[in-house]
Design a protein that fits this description.
This protein is mainly alpha-helical. Helix content is about 65%, strand content about 5%. Helix 11 packs parallel to helix 22, helix 14 runs antiparallel to helix 15 and helix 17 runs antiparallel to helix 18.
Length: about 750
């Protein structure tokens, strides 16, 4: 296909995909579970006000939200999923109460006798008693009494009752998770959160109007309450696998016919050797230093977070829970990963733009320095804000703006989101103004440059999706927009940006024909986005969305795996490039990072990703450690190692005449990759498999329970993270030492 036809195809894919994504966003809004005006008993007594549910969502977010357990399966892994936990406890108490009404003790009954009460339980829980005319949900007196009892139980857990100390430790929770703020007592704030827990659990078990399936497609799995996998999960899972196989065949055929071509004659010397860094290009070095610092802080917070899984109230005996609790350490660990990876990519873009055009715009270096200061301010401010939020130092409104939003991957407060978006727009401006002279030349590289700018535009503006929900937006809508950021921003357009940058660098080195690279990159982008845009829905199977979202998510997310089947060829291709000429030895480690990225793309995004991707798989696995396997291998393994590779390319250009200390950077490279492999395969994956077996065999709540997670063999598996974590930490420290050593000398071994 010609570039023109590929551009038209790409435009059609983007326009069509976003049209569907937007349409079903409206459908999610139209069919979302209702926020009631109030929840009342059959006698008319008010249990919860509707506003209490909304405020309770904010209280939950203020203590860390999705960093302290999860709701609807989205969140962290140490504490339980509160919706599943609530439903399990509610069902046990109701069964006991139903039997007691007839003078019987439920636990002493035969299975046949228990079956009667289980039928009554399902009828009670699954019946939709919401009245659209009045906006009222009605509870039976029995269910209302159970709700009051559950409120007393959770009050003990969240409000520092000594009898719950052991369980709080198992959940890695602060002793006083909820405290008095805004003129409200801790009890009053808890009561609001209790209302939110009750409502979010009601959503998971209550049938949609005119359906025998709950608002969350019967998630979480719990046969006792009638939450079993509906037919749609099986149907669309099977269809997605068939579609995957079909398109894999097509892609392999196409790739065989249109693979990238090597140049017929490799340059005798490094074409970029004589590139003189401009002031703005040299200013990028400080970004790389900050990336190193953020990487180390992220690693340290990860070590603390992992240890909280075995010692929930301390760190090797040090009582740090009340100073640096799990909710803060995990938030920092996740957020800093995204920030240092994004910063490495931003630095690469700022370096490449004037290098490509050959022109340094006026005040470009000043702009790069201003952006640097702004990014440092946002990073520091957001981290401090999250600490203040989780430590209950901010009111609900202040927490939303300056503290912890409670949503995984977008934890930073709204003010910091706005400032980060402003920084991304400034970055985009600096890039485009530097690339304009190159675009005006209209040579054969214009297609790659145009795609580079489009990917940069997407990175800058798609982060704005995180501003589309407000403080008390319905969870179903907030999740929709959150995954625009996490999936489309990180997993979608970051992928395109990376593909373009890598191909462009190889073309600049004279190792690839720019015509074939252009066609290959355009085709790859079409494949990425064909599945990637609508693949956003695979995160929303069970987030109180209509069945159509499940069908689309299953179908198109399967296509995300299609390009990954060729990763092995791509890795071999990069390896060939690394050995094509003696001078390319100077680029050995950046290229090795690209090869490692290919490996992790196949394993982390491909194997581990698809293992949890089909609806029937995710139904049992959502929020288990199988998700953490995919998260670590894909986020760090793919995007993190690629970010390291891009930084090394930039550093190669900033120190063009120096040979590198291969021993130091080589040890860093292999330690990082070996450590990541050991951490995921030896520890996190076995934990996830054990949880998966429990979830499928019994129920989801059981796989997340303290009773299951605190077993001796599970503790042993968590301790087995130490070898992998040690290698990974060592590799990151060595990498930072290598970066610093390029400035001070110990990372250099003579001249090229």
């Amino acid at each position: 296909m010609t570039p023109k036809k590929l551009w038209l195809t790409l435009a059609a894919v983007i326009i069509g995909s976003f049209a569907v994504l937007g349409f079903y966003g409206v459908e999610i809004f139209r069919e979302m579970p209702p926020f009631p005006n109030k929840v009342v008993t059959e006698k008319g007594e008010t249990l919860f006000e509707g506003q209490n549910i909304k405020d309770g969502q904010n209280v939950w977010q203020s203590i860390g939200g999705q960093t302290v357990g999860s709701v609807w399966g989205h969140g962290s892994y140490v504490a339980p999923d509160w919706t599943a936990d609530y439903l399990h406890r509610e069902s046990q108490l109701m069964l006991t109460a139903l039997a007691k009404k007839e003078g019987k003790v439920y636990s002493r009954l035969s299975e046949a006798e228990k079956a009667k009460y289980q039928v009554l339980l399902k009828e009670e829980l699954r019946r939709n008693t919401y009245d659209p005319a009045t906006g009222v949900i009605t509870y039976s007196e029995l269910r209302a009494n159970v709700a009051r009892e559950l409120s007393r139980y959770y009050a003990k857990l969240f409000l520092n009752d000594p009898s719950m100390n052991r369980l709080r430790s198992a959940y890695a929770m602060r002793e006083k998770s909820i405290e008095a703020v805004d003129g409200l007592t801790a009890q009053q704030r808890f009561e609001k959160m209790d209302a939110f827990f009750a409502w979010s659990s009601w959503v998971c078990v209550t049938n949609r109007p005119g359906s025998d399936v709950s608002y969350t497609n019967n998630w979480p799995h719990d046969p006792l309450i009638g939450n079993v996998a509906p037919t749609s999960l099986h149907l669309w899972s099977g269809f997605s696998i068939l579609l995957l196989l079909f398109f894999v065949g097509i892609l392999v055929y196409y790739y065989a016919q249109h693979k990238e071509e090597h140049v017929s004659h490799v340059p005798d010397s490094d074409p970029m050797r004589n590139l003189k860094p401009t002031p703005s290009m040299r200013a990028v070095l400080k970004y790389i230093w900050v990336v190193g610092a953020l990487m180390l802080v992220q690693m340290l917070s990860g070590v603390i977070t992992a240890h909280y899984g075995v010692e929930g109230d301390a760190f090797f005996g040090l009582p740090i829970q009340e100073v640096f609790p799990y909710a803060v350490s995990r938030s920092w660990h996740v957020q800093l990963a995204i920030l240092w990876i994004a910063t490495s990519w931003l630095a690469t873009g700022l370096y490449i733009a004037p290098a490509v055009s050959g022109i340094e715009p006026k005040y470009q270096a000043l702009g790069v320095n201003i952006l640097f200061g702004a990014l440092v301010f946002v990073v520091a401010g957001s981290l401090v804000g999250q600490w203040f939020g989780v430590m209950q130092k901010l009111g609900l409104v202040e927490n939303f703006w300056f503290g912890h939003q409670g949503y995984e991957y977008v934890e930073l407060g709204r003010l910091w989101q706005i400032l980060l978006l402003t920084g991304l727009v400034l970055w985009l401006f600096l890039m485009i103004r530097a690339l304009i002279p190159a675009l005006k030349r209209k040579d054969e590289s214009r297609h790659l440059l145009t795609l580079f700018i489009i990917a940069s535009l997407a990175i800058a503006f798609f982060y704005a999706a995180g501003l589309m929900y407000g403080r008390q937006t319905h969870m179903a809508i907030a999740e929709y927009w959150r995954w625009w950021v996490v999936h489309l921003w990180v997993e979608g357009f970051f992928e395109v940006f990376a593909t373009v940058v890598a191909s462009f660098l190889f073309c600049r080195l004279g190792l690839l024909k720019i015509q074939s690279a252009t066609v290959s990159v355009l085709f790859s982008t079409i494949i990425f986005l064909s599945g990637g845009i609508l693949g956003t829905f695979h995160h929303l199977y069970f987030s109180a969305t209509p069945t159509a979202v499940l069908a689309l998510g299953a179908t198109f997310s399967a296509l995300e795996i299609v390009p990954l089947v060729l990763i092995g060829m791509e890795a071999y291709h990069n390896y060939q490039l690394s050995r094509s000429t003696p001078w390319i030895e100077a680029y050995k480690w950046p290229i090795y990072c690209f090869i490692a990225m290919c490996f992790w793309n196949f394993l982390g995004a491909g194997i581990f990703g698809f293992a949890i991707n089909p609806p029937i798989a995710l139904y049992y696995l959502q929020g288990l450690n199988t998700t953490a396997v995919h998260g670590h291998a894909a986020l760090f393994g793919v995007y993190g190692i690629l970010g390291i590779g891009l930084m090394l390319f930039v550093l190669r250009g900033l120190y063009p005449n120096d040979k590198w200390n291969d021993r130091l950077i080589g040890l860093a490279f292999w330690s990082i990759n070996i450590g990541l492999l050991l951490m995921t395969v030896v520890s996190i994956l076995p934990i996830g498999i054990a949880q998966a077996h429990e979830s499928i065999t019994n129920a989801y709540w059981s796989a997340r329970s303290a009773e299951f997670m605190q077993q001796d063999f599970m503790q042993t598996l968590r301790w087995l993270r130490i070898p992998g974590d040690t290698f990974l930490a060592l590799g990151e420290v060595l990498l930072v030492l290598f970066i610093i050593g390029l400035q001070f000398g110990w990372s250099k071994k003579g001249k090229r």
